[in-house]
Specification:
By secondary structure, the chain is α+β, with helices and mostly antiparallel strands. The chain has a domain of about 300 residues: Distorted Sandwich (Beta-galactosidase, Chain A, domain 5), CATH 2.70.98.40. The chain contains 20 helices and 33 strands. Strand 29 and strand 30 form a beta hairpin. The longest helix is centred in the middle third of the chain and has 24 residues. The chain starts with 10 loop residues before the first strand and ends with a strand. The protein binds beta-D-glucopyranose. Beta-D-glucopyranose binds next to loops.
């Protein structure tokens, strides 16, 4: 595979200016800090193709639904993460000509994302239409320490002339979402002000009243001396700018430092927003660029200490995993239970920045192993706080008795998705939300959430499954009709194996939780039973469904069948499909996709991944070999699950191939869609591919199980995980495995099927 970005362990490097790749690079070089983020747009004007994006976590807009044909039950709106004030803007004019890379000759263009220290740097030489040549270097970052702060250092050097330079730092809130349903703008201006060297905008969303204040302070130096040039102020609706006029000599170095704070009414009182934002921005300016940059590098050093994965001997694999971990840490920090992880993080508008099942099915394992428990617990709490809305949603669809259907896509708990085959039918998402509780309890051993809030969630989801299953007289079994499984290239199918499986698993797990609470927190259980009006009859029904659920399978092939009738399809393998058909979602009509046997993402295999302990290796292998060959991996969430299962069954070549695909999905633009944004949630899947796949990590009966294998292409691999108070540094190669316990807490381990107790600060070495 050709790599457009240079291979490097710690940096993503783009060399040469390729305007046709600009939107892809804008996604790849995105910055964020969990509180806000942005695409890598240029500071100066750019008239070429670009998707502008600045986002503030949790600030969204309910954009009125637009569909071809309205169906009863559709949501009224689609919540969108908002493109908000463009705070990076710095327009440059040289002898009256605007610097615009689409309109001048560009040389030595380089963009570098420094993942070790957390900043983005861009440099180039440009010759304008009047022959003036300049050199520009810009460096910017979004502070990991000061959530609201973003900083830019923008340096310009005239290379072959002396003359007039106009520098215009600005804030522009007159922005749109490119996916706005009715071409509307979503912001209103409340107030603004601009002074020499400073300015602010206070805006409010047209609906929901989110207020955002953006404050800039800037200063200019020439050859390292602060100057006070002539300033012209400019303002218009939702826009403030301040132009500095400078006469400079050839080879002078002119630098503008821009210090910006972005605050929102989600965290501060509206009446205090302007004052607080000004203070934050002014404090950043006082502390200065270099100090903030050092702070940033130190913060990233700490992050990497906890979450780095080191792969020796394979630079493309190393770069891939670091890029994924970097983006994950930029997207979600877990401090605020009202926030979640959108499939594109802060790197684009697609998917509305909302919450999907991705969080529970793919992201929670990453946060469980690399962050304190509170982070994953906050993700569970997020859903608990939205339980009422999930019950309302199910009620709207005709379910009763407190049954809950969590939305496919949501910001505040309300369903936003509006394609019937997903909104109403892709109900397996409910199961992933239940599974997250199991994952949390199984990994951390902390059962306090069960009585505190999780039982309520589990009971409501179980009530949904019990009502959604139908008893089929002809089969004398329970069936689940009219669903879409994880493989969205099949709609409205009956008995999707995965959905039937996770439905019954939820019922079983909820019964286990009832048992646990009965034995350990009986008073709390009776309180909850009263609150939920929970009757023993329900338990009888659930048991009946569990015992009598129908699971489609093909005896001859010894596999579980994705759904009823799957074998009626013409069976073609992906390897036999002419490459010009791929990706089928961009090349084929929808009906052709639906009629084909091709699978978008792990479906039966998703179930086998979750419930692996229930199947022997032969069964896993048969299903893997059958389904993998029919899977086009056109969801980013697919290759990671395939890596894990391939490693499990000893198909290491396939595991490695799938690993590269998941870890370099965006860097190598595998699915030809990185321009829309990076696949942030699948990045957690990449982490799972290494740790669960090659590391073989599982937690079984309170024991940490490890079965590492090293791909041939790697010399060694190491990763760190937090497990029940211990911090384990795990390193392996083809000959040995080392586990260093970096905390003073003992842990029980099973390594290559042998049990160990690893005491605090001890080292375990195992020959392979
Ligand atoms: C996948 C879904 C996923 C969504 C957001 C879709 O392409 O099929 O499983 O939830 O993307 O990542």
């Amino acid at each position: 595979m050709e790599h457009y970005y240079k291979l490097n362990e710690w940096n993503i490097i783009e060399q040469g200016f390729n305007s046709d790749k600009n939107e892809i690079s804008e996604s790849i070089f995105s910055l964020g800090n969990g509180y806000m983020g942005q695409r890598a747009n240029f500071e100066e004007e750019y008239s070429g193709t670009s998707l502008q994006g600045n986002y503030i976590a949790g600030v969204y807009y309910p954009d009125k639904t637009r569909v071809g044909w309205w169906k009863n039950g559709y949501p009224e709106y689609f919540a969108k993460v908002l493109n908000s004030t463009n705070w990076i803007g710095i327009d440059i004019k040289i002898n009256d000509i605007t610097l615009d890379l689409a309109k001048c000759t560009v040389k030595e263009f380089e963009r570098v994302l420094n993942m070790k220290k957390g900043y983005l740097q861009r440099s180039f030489k440009a010759t304008l239409s009047n022959g003036n040549e300049i050199e520009v270097t810009s460096k910017r970052f979004i502070s990991m320490i000061r959530g609201e702060i973003g900083v830019i250092k923008y340096a310009i050097k005239p290379l072959n002339f002396s003359g007039k330079l106009e520098i215009t730092p600005y804030l522009d809130g007159d922005v749109m979402n490119s996916d706005s349903n009715y071409d509307e703008k979503f912001w209103d201006e409340i107030s603004k002000e601009v002074n020499p060297y400073a300015g602010y905008l206070l805006l409010k969303t047209k609906k929901l009243d989110f207020h955002i204040c953006t404050y800039m302070n800037y200063e200019i130096t020439v050859n390292d001396k602060i100057i006070k040039p002539v300033i012209a102020l400019n303002q218009s609706e939702k826009y403030v700018a301040s132009t500095a006029l400078i006469y400079c000599n050839e080879n002078d170095e002119v630098i503008i430092y821009k210090y910006v704070a972005n605050t929102s009414s989600r965290y501060y009182d509206i009446s205090k927003l302007v004052r607080i934002t000004k203070e934050l921005s002014s404090k950043a300016k006082k502390d200065g660029f270099e100090m903030l940059l050092k702070e940033q590098a130190d913060a990233w050093k700490e992050k990497w200490k906890e979450s780095d994965i080191v792969i020796e001997g394979d630079i493309s694999a190393q770069q891939g995993i670091r890029f994924n971990i970097f983006q994950l840490n930029q997207t979600y920090t877990g401090e605020d239970h009202r926030l979640n992880i959108g499939p594109k993080g802060f790197t684009g508008e697609k998917y509305g920045g909302s919450t999907y099942w991705d969080t529970e099915a793919y992201c929670i394992p990453f946060y469980l192993s690399t962050s304190e428990e509170k982070v994953s617990k906050n993700l569970l709490l997020y859903r608990y706080k939205q339980l009422d809305k999930a019950i309302e949603n199910a009620t709207k669809l005709g379910f009763t008795n407190g049954a809950a259907l969590y939305p496919m896509v949501t910001m505040n708990g309300e369903e936003c998705h509006n394609e019937w085959e997903i909104t109403f039918e892709e109900i397996h998402r409910n199961g992933a939300i239940a599974y997250a509780t199991y994952n949390y309890v199984n990994y951390t051993g902390d059962k306090s959430c069960l009585g505190e809030f999780s039982f309520e969630v589990l009971a409501a989801i179980s009530r949904f499954w019990a009502q959604r299953a139908t008893f089929s007289k002809s089969r004398n079994k329970y069936v689940i009709l009219g669903v879409t499984g994880p493989n969205e290239y099949e709609n409205n199918v009956n008995n999707n194996w995965y959905t039937n499986r996770i439905a019954c698993w939820t019922l079983t797990y909820t019964l286990e939780v009832i048992n646990y609470l009965n034995q350990n927190e009986p008073e709390r259980l009776s309180e909850l039973n009263k609150k939920l009006n929970f009757k023993d009859d329900e338990i009888i029904t659930w048991k009946n469904i569990i015992e009598n659920m129908y699971y489609p399978c093909n005896e001859e092939l010894g596999i579980f069948l994705q759904q009823d009738g799957y074998m009626d399809k013409e069976q073609i393998l992906v390897k036999d499909l002419d490459k010009k058909n791929l990706p089928i979602n961009q090349k084929w009509s929808w009906d052709r996709i639906l009629r084909s046997c091709f699978i978008k993402q792990a479906d039966v295999l998703q179930g086998i991944y979750l419930f692996e302990q229930d199947y022997n290796t032969d069964t896993i292998k048969r299903n893997f070999d059958f389904y993998e060959q029919r899977t086009v991996h056109e969801s980013s969430l697919s290759p990671c699950i395939h890596t894990i299962l391939a490693a499990k069954i000893g198909n290491y070549d396939k595991a490695y191939e799938m690993y590269l695909r998941t870890s370099r999905l965006d860097l190598d633009n595998y699915n030809n869609d990185t321009k829309d944004g990076c696949h942030s949630t699948s990045m957690a899947g990449t982490w799972m591919a290494v740790v669960h796949g090659f590391g073989g990590l599982r937690v079984i009966d309170n024991k940490l199980v490890l079965n590492p294998i090293i791909p041939d292409h790697w010399k060694s691999c190491s990763f760190k995980i937090i497990f029940r108070g211990a911090l384990l540094n795990i390193k392996f190669n083809a000959d040995f495995l080392q586990i260093q316990n970096e905390k003073d807490v003992a842990v029980d381990l099973s390594v290559y099927k042998k049990d160990y107790r690893l005491n605090g600060n001890d080292l375990l070495e195992v020959k392979i």
